[in-house]
Structures are given as C-alpha cells and as structure tokens.
Amino acid sequence: MNCRKLPPIFILVVIFLSLRFEAVQGLASPAGPGLHYIGSARQFFFDEDIVETLERSARRLNVAEKVTPNPVLRRDRPWEGPDMRLSWVIFDQRLGKFRMRYSSGVFRTGGRDEKGKVIVLGEGDATAAQRIICEAVSSDGVNWEKPSLGLVEYQGSKANNIVPEAMAYGYFFEDLHDSDPARRYKSFTRAGTYQGKGMTFSYFYSPDAYHWFAGAGNPVIDTGQQVGRWGPTDFLGWDPIRKVYAVHMENNFHMHSAYARRSIGRAESLDMVHWSEPETIVVADNLDYPDTEFYAMPTAFHEGWYLGSLWIFSTTNTTHEPQFVFSRDGVHYNRMYRQPIISRGDQGDFDAVSIYASEPIVYQDKIYYYYTGTNWRSPEQLLLLGDKAAAGIGLATLPRDGFVSLEGARHEWSVATTRSLTFSGKNLYLNLQAALQQWGAEPCEVRVELLDGRLNPLPGYSFSDADPLVATSLEHRVSWRGNADIAALAGRPMRLKIYFKNAKLYSFQFR
Q1: Rounded to two decimals, what is the model's pTM?
Q2: Across 149-175, average pLDDT
Q3: What is the CATH number of the domain that holds 492?
Q4: Closest by alpha carbon to 288, among 267, 312, 268, 311?
Q5: CA–CA gap between residue 244 and residue 475 (Å, rounded)
Q6: E runs forming strands in 27-82
Q7: pLDDT averaged over the chain?
Q8: Does residue 3 carry a pLDDT above 60?
Q9: How many folded domains does the chain comprise?
Q10: Per-residue pLDDT for 230 more than 80?
Q11: Cβ(271)–Cβ(239) under 8 Å?
Q12: The domain containing residue 352 runs over which residues?
C-alpha cells in the first residue's frame, strides 16, 4: 500500500480495519443450532441454516435462463466494433433506470513473440486496436437505448453515446451511503499493466458519472509497493453489512501467489483513500479440478447476504463460468453449489467458451445477470477463429429469490421443517413456483403447519387447517381456514413445517 505522508489518524484507521478484518476471519460460521431470531428478514432456501430436516426433498441450483434474443445489446452504430464487452451495469437509483457502460472495438492479435506464442492485445494495452466506452440505459433491463450524450466528437459530430476515454476503465458504483450529491458516483481507476512494476489505482467521484473529480491522495493504491498482491479489481462499493467501502481483487498480482494460482482477496476502507492490506478469502479446494483458478468475484448485497458471481477459470481448456456463492460476513463464502449459475452456449454461439458475469441485480420480480460472452479465451483461439470471433453482452434471469430451490416429489408429499425460530410481523409469505404438471404428476400443492417446541402443530395451524397454495406466486400469503393474521404468535418460539408436491420453494418471509 502507498503509505506516503499518511496522517496518524489514518494509520490508526488502517490498523483498525486490519484488526477488524482478522477478527472476523477468526469467527466461526454464523450458522449453528438453537433458536433463530429472524424478525422480518427474508429467508432463502440456499441457506442450510434455516432448514433443519428435509424429507423426500433436496436443494437444487437453478440455472439462469438466457433472454431471447441474446446478446441483449447489439452492435448497431458506426462507431461500434464487433468486440462488445460489458464494463459495468447497475440499476441507477437516481435515474430510476438500468445503466450500462460497455466497451467496443475490433478483435486484434499482436502476432507472435520470439518463441512463437500468439500475443493478444486487450483493453488495457496502449497498442491495442482503438476501443471506446459507450453508455446505454433501459427501463426494464431487457430493451436498451443508446442516448445521445454530446460528450465526445466522432467524425465531426457529438451526437453519439460515447463516454470520454479518461474514465474508460474505472471500477464504478453508485454510492447511496454518501449524502453529498457531488459524490454520488465513485470510480477506482487503474493505470499500468500486470507485468513489470505493477499498477496504481486512483479514486474519482462525480455527481452524474460524466464529470469526474480526483479524490485526495491519488494514487491510493500502488501495487509496485506490494508485489504479489493486488491484481485486477472489482468494486463492491459501500458495504452496508460491515459498514465500510470494499473491493474484491485477484489477491496475487495476476496469478503470482503462494497458492500458485489466482485467488480472491478483499480490502476495506472508511474513506476510499486509505485501504487495509488485502486478505485472501476464496481459494481453490480439493473439490475443484486441479486447473481451477478464480478470476474475479463481482458481489451484490441483498437481504443481509453477500451474493457473489465467482469466475471459475479453467486453465486447461481455457474457459470461464460463474458460480453462485454466498456469505453472511463477507469473508467466509459458501461454495456448496459447484455447477455454473449461467451455462456456456452451444458451439457457434457468441458465449460458447467464456462467460464473465456481473453481480446479480435484484429488481422487482427478477434477478438479472448481465455478462460478457465470448467464443474464445486464448490468443490461439482468437487467431484460429479469425472473422468468426465473437464477443457480446448477454443477459440471463431468474425469478426473484430463485437462486436455489427446494424440490421434491411429484406424486407424494415432500417436507421441509425449519429450525426453531421467532419472528416479527403479522403475515407469512411464501415464494414458490408450481412445477410443470407432466408425466402424470399431481397438481402443485403447498401447505404450512406451525409447530410448538415439542413438534406438535399449534391449535388452528395444523396441516388440515392450512389453506392449500396451488399456483406460482412471488408472495403467497399463507392462511389457515381463511385466517392469515398471526401477529399473536410473534416472538414465540416455533417451527414451520412445509408440505409440498410438484412445486419449487424459493423463500419465505414474515411481514
């Protein structure tokens, strides 16, 4: 870290963050037996902690469904090239719209080096074919417009959606924590390459993400001072759970690490200027293939959880796929679902080889995964494909809360019983999807019992009292003989016993 001329107070801040980070690393998992106070927080079924027993049921990762047509953003402007890549995408709270920055250029290799190895010229190379950064906006996340920004001249006109090159490669977020409207948007912009003396990162802020101002103390990170550490970085922004700014990075200076392969690290800051030393939080384990490395981990905050898209890089066949990972504390990540959350496309598709996924965006009734898809990864593949090389910006979606579901039998009752819990609120809501009624399967039906400490149904809340739920709904209000008001039970230890058949259960919530 660049510690030149740091005031004593900020040295203390860094020490505090480091100690706080180490303390959290030393904590046991927040999971554990006993009474769970859940209040009115939404409970997801990807979480093993909330469900105590399953009968004729299992958790299943739901693969995000790609929209049609895909890619969702297409080349249709004279200044755009065939190599279309996602830089970042957010739901902009100030604008009330989805907002995307994407890069565009042409595919180009740098020939071969003295050993005959193909050289590829990427976004960060000064000698690469010229690339531009453009903006697109959308009201629904699927249909995108390319506004005329009037910022950059192209062939004598500023009637285009090109963004000034100065902020082309920044790691960007909208900061809802900062009350100063002049600092609504923040960017962490890198300079330099991964080889040689390393990179530096500088901090900028903006009221609109067009006009940027340099923060104090730039560069705030100098990887030349910590070789073997800070590599390509993804901004989490303000972490509302740990109450700090946070980043994830390749914590190994682009694969040079003690683990001999890429891993994921985390660093924290109170002011965007003074950063803790990176701590490694995700490494490959004995369940991974030997050639597995982690390229990045874009992560979102949702309902008290960290929800990440872990980029799995297979170095043998040079492919990328995203895994769904989750954490309560931002340090201990659960990787129990090892299959991709977005599948690579078939041969001939633009996303047949690599998928570089963003963090999930939860908006209204859906989860949005935007990604860059390519049909090549290595320079050799690019050279071989020639004008058939493809890169585009895709979109895959899930129903709200639909990362993982409880699924069971089609012809008999499956049962999920929660741990003992207390809640606050008046009503119980269940998010479920009716499965397809095929191959002689019985209709969807879900019933909820409320149990006491001896696992006996509470009077009036038994299986026979429960009104059946028979259709897909994000918010089924659970009721018993027409009564949905359970405010009298708030604060009382109890369990839910959910009977279901031919259905997928995503989550539940007391409100």
Answers
A1: 0.88
A2: 86
A3: 2.60.120
A4: 312
A5: 33
A6: 36-39, 43-44, 51-55, 57-61, 65-66
A7: 86
A8: no
A9: 2
A10: no
A11: no
A12: 65-401
